[in-house]
TrEMBL record:
The keyword Coiled coil does not apply. It comes from Cytobacillus oceanisediminis. The keyword Signal applies. It comes from the Bacteria. SUPFAM superfamilies: Periplasmic binding protein-like I. InterPro entries: BCAA_transport, Leu-bd, Peripla_BP_I. Residues 1-27 form the signal peptide. Residues 37-375 form the Leucine-binding protein domain. Belongs to the leucine-binding protein family. PANTHER family: LEUCINE-SPECIFIC-BINDING PROTEIN, PERIPLASMIC BINDING PROTEIN OF ABC TRANSPORTER FOR NATURAL AMINO ACIDS. Keywords: Signal. This is Amino acid/amide ABC transporter substrate-binding protein, HAAT family (TC 3.A.1.4.-).
Amino acid sequence: MKFKLNGFKSLLMLGTALTLIITSGCSGDTASSEEETVKIGVLASLTGPLETYGKQTVAGFELGLDYATEGSNEVAGKKVEFIVEDTETKPDVAVRKATKLLEEDEVDFLVGSSSSGDTLAVLPLAEEYEKIMVVEPAVADSITGQNWNKYIFRTGRNSSQDAVAGAAAIAEKDVKIATFAQDNAYGREGIAAFKEGAEKLGATIVNEQYADPNSTDFTANIQSIINEKPDYLYIVWAGSNAPWKQLKDMQLEEQGIKISTAAQDIASLKTMDSLIGMSGFSIYYHTLPDNEVNDWLVEEHKKKFDGEIPDLFTAGGMTAAISIVEALKKTEGDKEVDGLITTMENMEFETPKGTMKFRAEDHQALQSLYAVTLEEQEGEDHPVPVLIRELNMEETEPPIRNGK
């Protein structure tokens, strides 16, 4: 059964176990041969703790195809079809769904996933089936590091890029920093990368705390941090059970400990009232980039979703779609994998965050991030990241960690 997805709210109405197939092109033409169709399998958390991320990614992916194909939903004369599978934010499910996409649906590309754990589990399948996987938005360094293979390209930023931006915001000689993160690949790799960047700038890491990703009580972690009396607490966090309220209740700032973290998606920002005035960094907020692609995204998203603004993972989904379409334009629709890999290495393409470039050595997309402060603004129901300065792709370029 096939569905035409007309908006993000339509996606929210679909059942959690539903497989979505979005077919673009002339209505009624369902008899195209495999050679006349580009099939993309999108792995996303449509349920589970990261479901908001997954749903935004899918909405952004559809918008990205519309933008990159100028509304034709064709590239080099081929129709574009994408099939969405729910990983449920579970690695074993992600592997099963990816295998289904590769074997039964015979997709030409994989995209995903919302979770680093899901994505790491799927990476070997891209190599086994010799299909390009565009990673978005999973962040763990090991995806383009020790677990990388030549079929992996990442449009999302990695932990080291976050770390460079995070360190630039607070780290300098003789500054003492404590860290706090979830005890998972995202959290541990994010802290490892931050430590590397901060120590290069002369800061000292005095305490590292990790919490179960499902925990809601962080008293022991926070008290350990307070006991060390750092100048800053740097936090790596994803998901809805963030520690912001408990940090406020335990009065860290009154004890001289400044908090710094990423200003992430809008749902996270809505929990960060206690961090107004914070210096940190942003991966994407709709007012930060100044380019035509982002202008288009903001305008079209508002049209399509009843005035709603695009969020972090919407922009990421759009970027992943653009990267695939731009590669196929350059190959004139040729889906031969080795040729696509050669084409995509060092390929520059325009995104809502400006120009990105797939680095040849590890296929990580080099990209801008943003040094920001969080400010209260009239008419907004969340603290707003306000630009201090854009950190360009050269400034945020991460180390190459895949040994190539």
